[in-house]
Design goal:
The N and C termini lie far apart (47 Å). The chain is globular, with a radius of gyration of 16 Å. It has a 7-stranded antiparallel β-sheet with strand order 1-7-6-5-4-3-2. It is 27% helix and 33% strand. It has one domain: START domain (Alpha-D-Glucose-1,6-Bisphosphate, Chain A, domain 4, 2-Layer Sandwich), CATH 3.30.530.20. The protein has 4 helices and 7 strands. By secondary structure, the chain is α+β, with helices and mostly antiparallel strands.
Length: 166
């Protein structure tokens, strides 16, 4: 997808917003989401490299890479860390184009907030700036909207399993 195709009419596309409540502190939820990214990301079905991926990695710092590691050792970027505010907030650059390939010129954002709610944490995900997909924005939004809920539920399930085994 060329840069020209990504710059649509400039009209805003509604952000995707998903929330899940997990039985963990914000610090633990943040740690599992970031340091344990590969433990809960559905890598068998959600990868973009040429070979199946073995894990997803999120480097814990501003400008850290967000990428997959292929079964053959190859790496495929997804984006990078824009904001790193442990244990309450993380913003990632989503640089995966509508054709599901990395595009360093494309930057949508995924913000994740970890909000204390009693003894639990409400994890709020917002995938925004979807207008960067231009004429494909509505299609991409529909695909991502369906995917994020399942991904967050998998994240919550990982926390439940971890806490249930303690």
């Amino acid at each position: 997808m060329s840069t020209a195709n990504k710059v649509g009419s400039g009209s805003a596309v509604a952000a995707i917003k998903k929330t899940v409540l997990v039985d963990a502190s914000p610090a633990l939820a943040f740690q599992i989401f970031t340091e344990g990214h590969g433990s809960w990301w559905p890598i068998r079905t959600h990868y973009i490299g040429k070979v199946p991926a073995q894990t997803a990695i999120l480097e814990p710092r501003v400008d850290g890479r967000w990428y997959e590691l292929g079964q053959d050792g190859s790496e495929c970027d997804w984006g990078k860390v824009l904001i790193w505010e442990p244990p309450y907030r993380l913003v990632l650059a989503w640089q995966i184009a509508a054709d599901w390939k990395f595009d360093p010129n494309l930057v949508a954002e995924v913000e994740v907030r970890f909000v204390q709610e009693g003894s639990k944490t409400r994890v709020e995900l917002e995938h925004r700036k979807l207008e960067v997909f231009g004429s494909a924005a509505a299609t991409v939004r529909a695909e991502l909207d369906g995917g994020w809920l399942g991904i967050l539920e998998r994240f919550a399930g990982t926390i439940e399993q971890r806490e249930g085994n303690r």
